[in-house]
Specification:
Radius of gyration: 16 Å
Number of helices: 7
Order of helices and strands: HHHHHHH
Distance between the termini: 29 Å
Strand content: under 5%
CATH superfamily: Heme oxygenase-like
Largest sheet: none
Helix content: 55-70%
CATH architecture: Up-down Bundle
Number of strands: 0
Bound molecules: protoporphyrin IX containing FE
Number of domains: 1
Oligomer: single chain
CATH topology: Heme Oxygenase, Chain A
Length: 186
C-alpha cells in the first residue's frame, strides 16, 4: 500500500538525485550530505518533541551519522552549525503521521545499501570517511526494516491508514522540495 502510493515519488527523486549519476564528484556528494543534514536535523527535533525527551527515535542515529560524515568531508563544527535547515516539514501530530514519516526515512536505508557501494567505487568514500549515513544501520539494515514493517502492520487499521499514506507522500514531497531548493537535484 505505502510502496505503491509512493512509487512515483520514489522514482522521481531517485532519478533527480545525482548519487547514481556517472559524473558524481566529491563536491556534489558533500552538498547532498549537507542538504540531508538540513532536513534530518530539524525532523529529528520535531520527532523528539512529539515522542518526548526520552525518545530513542532512529533519526537520532541518522543525524549523528550525518555530522560524522560532514566532519570527515572537511566541515568544521561552526560550519555545520550554520548549514541551512528545512522549515517546511511534514505535519506531525499523530502516531499515524509519525509512521508515514518514518516509512520514508527508514526505507531510504535500503537504497543506502546500493548507494554506499557506488560512492565507495566512484569516490573512495567509506563509512569512516564520509559515508556513514548511507550505511547507518550496516548489517542490521534488513533486520531493522523488517522490524519497522512489523510495527506498520501492527498499526494497520482502516481508520488511520489514509493518514499514514498522506504523511509518507508529504514527506517525499517536503524532502524533494528541500533538496531542490538546496540546489542538489538535477
Ligand atoms: C538514488 C537514490 C536512491 C536509490 C538508488 C534507491 C534505491 C532503493 C532500493 C534498491 C530500494 C529497495 C527496493 C526493494 O527492496 O524492493 C529502495 C527502497 C526504498 N527507498 Fe529508495 N532509493 C533512493 C533514494 C531514496 C530516497 C531519497 C528515499 C526517501 C527519502 C527513499 C525511500 C525509499 C523507501 C521508503 C523504500 C521502501 C520501499 C518499500 O516499501 O519496499 N529512497 N530504494
Amino acid at each position: 500500500m505505502l510502496r505503491a502510493a509512493t512509487a512515483a515519488q520514489h522514482r522521481a527523486l531517485e532519478a533527480r538525485l545525482p548519487l547514481t549519476h556517472p559524473d558524481l564528484d566529491r563536491a556534489t556528494y558533500t552538498k547532498i550530505i549537507e542538504a540531508y543534514y538540513g532536513f534530518h536535523a530539524p525532523l529529528q527535533r520535531k520527532i523528539e518533541q512529539f515522542l518526548g525527551p526520552r525518545s530513542t527515535a532512529p533519526e537520532r542515529r541518522k543525524v549523528a551519522a550525518l555530522i560524522k560524515d560532514l566532519r570527515a568531508l572537511g566541515l568544521n563544527d561552526p560550519q555545520i552549525g550554520t548549514l541551512p535547515l528545512c522549515m517546511t516539514l511534514p505535519t506531525l501530530e499523530t502516531q499515524a503521521q509519525l509512521l508515514g514519516i518514518m516509512y520514508v526515512m527508514e526505507g531510504a536505508t535500503l537504497g543506502g545499501q546500493v548507494l554506499r557501494r557506488i560512492i565507495a567505487d566512484r569516490l573512495g568514500i567509506h563509512a569512516d570517511s564520509g559515508g556513514e549515513f548511507l550505511d547507518v544501520y550496516g548489517r542490521d539494515t534488513g533486520r531493522l526494516w523488517k522490524a519497522f514493517l512489523k510495527q506498520l502492520a501492527d498499526f494497520d487499521h482502516p481508520e488511520h491508514n489514509n493518514q499514514v499514506v498522506d504523511a509518507a507522500c508529504a514527506t517525499f514531497a517536503c524532502f524533494e522540495s528541500w533538496l531542490d531548493r538546496a540546489g542538489v537535484l538535477s
